[in-house]
Amino acid sequence: MTLRNGDIPNNNLSGIQSKTFKQFRRKLNEKVPDYRITWVHRYNDTIIEVGLEPQKKWTYRKSIRASKVATEVEDLTGITIVLR
Predict the structure, then answer these.
(1) What b/e string do you get for 11-30 counting C-beta neighbours within 10 Å, with b at 16 or more?
(2) Which domain holds residue 77?
(3) For the chain, what is the domain count?
């Protein structure tokens, strides 16, 4: 089941983690709109895990762009985003 990006539950994220996730989701939609976020989980206080589901035409470059977006957001907020 694929959720729309607005329907993703926060899974007990803290305030800063929720803010980080929203920022990541917004930037990901701008730079790599082909990916859908299917889930997000809190790993610990400084790490969140995000499940991505690529569309039909998955490319290595798009996954690198998604990783760069995660790194950019991590640099701004200090919360590490692990992509699955």
Answers:
(1) eebeeebbebbebbbebbee
(2) 5-83
(3) 1
